Fold this sequence. Notes:
- By secondary structure, the protein is of the alpha+beta class.
- Helices cover about 30% and strands about 25% of the residues.
Amino acid sequence: MKKHFIYYLIFSVILFPAIMSCSDSDGDDNDNPGGGDSNNGTSTLSLNPTTLEFAPKDDGKTFKITTNGDWVITMDASVDWVKLSALKGNGNADVTVTPDENETFSVRSAVLTVKVSTISRKLTVRQEAAPTDPDDPFSTDYLLLKNIPNSAGEQIVAYKMFSTGDAATYDAYTWRLKGSNDGEEWTIVDERAEQSFFARYQEQFYIIETPGEFTQYRLEAIAQYAKTTPRLGEVVLYSQNPVAAWESFGYPVVEYIAESAVAESTGGKQFRSVVQDPVEFMKYHTQKVAEILYYLPGDQMPAVSKVNYKLESWTGSSVADKSGAPPTIQIRFNAKYIGEFSGGKTVQAIVHEMRGVLYHELTHGYQFEPKNCGSYDGSSVYWTFIEGLADAVRADAGLFDNQVQNRKDSSKDSKKWMAGYRTTGYFIQWMKTKDKDAIRKFNRTAKDLETWTWDAAVKAVFPTYTGVEQLWNEYYKEINK
Ligand SMILES: [Zn+2]
């Protein structure tokens, strides 16, 4: 006992800095995994062994708990592949750990915590990945084959792939693109391993590593799980790099913040089922919004360098809001709203809404602000520009439902272009039917006009018009014919 005690003292001193920096500060004695007598009052606890290794398909294995007290085993709620013969008991015991078959192509591990009174010990469970043929991981019955003709008739240099609305576990995970001219001899032009899509119905672009001249292409893909055929949306081939013009866009740093109670709420879970990686999701949309508001990434625009992306929960009908001003803005999403909105909706409708809200809120980060025309008060000229342009960008991204009927209805709004939100937004977006750069030019008027008015802005974008009234009348007629 004395020897043990001295050992424990030395061990504690060595590990002291580590304990101090450990965030798990609930008083647990975690610094001696599986170890022996810890001199904690009268309770004792040790585990043997402290690591269990499993093959992808394996029988249960047993570890020993040696204790003089009541013990409880816990593990992270996300671990659903480990079964235990007992979760609690008293005194010495053998506990059997049985893993499900690992059908993923990744090694996985879980940590079990055994507690007696205030002492806790940890046991690590580790399981090998599902086997692949080392010579050819694509030799599986669960291969996805997609033939894509080269309709461009030119050399293909890039491609775009869409995820589906199914669970992310069905996504294509590792793939190769092959080209051929006779349908018999195939040449690999691009290979990608362990990819992930950051949202449902998400487009992702890939530049082909070794392009060649081919008349047809074939994509071969496997999923993350060995016994699953991947599901993939549309694959589009490009003979020119479609993302080249915006490659130099400076993404902001994005921090995603969600307290666990919000993350675990109905809306929080719903959000994460359609958005697997909120940081990438936000970054993607910052660029998409900038593309609508500006010609090129080098254009003068508000320098948004940081976005705090918060999932919160509040009562009321508001979906989201934006606060702060560049360089740092904050965008909050209402998890409570997402939960209520999502009931009975398709994945497509939910992700549509998530994107639409982001287009709107991010416009507030990237738009210019009009000068000398009031404040954000729900009725001023300033306010109509701010909210109208945000909904115009959302409409331009195609993210309002039932657009034709909504446009007709909103065009009859008695406040006309001064109504804000959709009524104003649809009007601004319609201007693109007269000039494809109308939204960009309209946004730019906020920077250029010393005193911003609707008449001055319309005349700046459409020099032959007398003012906003004339343009609105034309819009009204066209929408209602
Ligand atoms: Zn807004």
